[in-house]
Amino acid sequence: MGLNFQWLLSWCSKRNPKPSSDIEDADWPERRPHGYQLYPPAPPQKILATRAEYVHHLRYRKYWPPENNPDTPLFCLYRLYEFLVIDDVIGYRNTLEYFCKQRTWAVREIPDPQDDDPARYAFLDCLPALLKAAFNERIKLGLVRDIPAIMSPEQAEAYRTAPESSKTYEEEPEWVKNVKPLEESCIWYHTMVL
User: Fold this and answer.
1) Do residues 79 and 63 lie in contact, with contact meaning Cβ atoms separated by under 8 Å?
2) pLDDT band at 62 (very low <50, low <70, confident <90, very high)
3) Nearest CA to 99 among 36, 35, 145, 147?
4) Long-range Cβ contact pairs of 140-145 (< 8 A, separation 24 or more)
5) What is the pLDDT of residues 84-130, one digit of tens each?
6) 106: closest CA among 80, 68, 70, 77?
7) Contact in structure between 79 and 93 (CB atoms under 8 Å)
8) How far is the CA of 59 from the CAs of 18, 55, 63, 105, 142, in angstroms?
9) Long-range pairs of 67-75 with CB within 8 A, sequence gap ≥ 24
10) For labelling alongside 67, which of 2, 45, 61, 158 has CA 20 to 30 A away?
11) Res 48: pLDDT
12) Dist CA 122 CA 45 (whole Å)
């Protein structure tokens, strides 16, 4: 029995139509050329006010970096921000893994976003600490960032038992020390959006 994909696509689009929202039509990927990421993304308050619509927006994104730009650690940092704000664990996990696999992207070399939105900038300020903690925990176990995807048991054991002096741990960038804390804390609660 074959699956009628045309029917499935039609059913999915009727089940999840594009909702109306505060997000401008030009922001929606199906109306933007090639479905690139908005840069910078909306502030956290706007994302949370239109969370279901924003989740829908992210699901239609076809390409990660903004149009005509190579991907960079800063673009990836903004994607992590988006996935954390909307509480998309799979999106966050996949983006974290993607960042980890970019062997030339040292956490300490993430450039200062100099974001003009204080809440978004404060949020971005916290992300390098999360990256550092996640990557350094893996490095302690011998799972360095340039580890091959496929290796023999002997190679895996060599990485695991490597001396501490041979391991390069991640550090936070200098700019995180200069970001001013928010005057008022941002607190939000998440609910599941399908």
Assistant:
1) no
2) low
3) 145
4) 140/167, 144/168, 145/100, 145/101, 145/103
5) 998 888 989 999 999 998 989 999 999 999 999 999 999 999 999 99
6) 77
7) no
8) 11, 6, 11, 26, 34
9) 67/33, 67/34, 67/36, 71/102, 73/99, 73/102, 73/105, 73/107, 73/109, 73/110, 73/111, 74/110, 74/111, 74/113, 75/37, 75/39
10) 45
11) 87
12) 13
Residue labelled with tokens 């994909």? 5
| E-state strands within 13-91 | none
Q: Which of 1, 47, 2, 58 is nearest to 21 (CA)?
A: 47
Band (pLDDT 50/70/90 cuts) for residue 149 is: confident
CA distance 82 to 78: 6
User: Using 50, 70 and 90 to split pLDDT, how confident is the model at 144?
Assistant: confident
Q: Residue 172 corresponds to which tokens in the numbers above?
A: 């936070």
- The Cα–Cα gap between 26 and 136 comes to 40
DSSP 103: T
Question: pTM of the prediction?
Answer: 0.75
Confidence of residue 136 (pLDDT cuts 50, 70, 90): very high
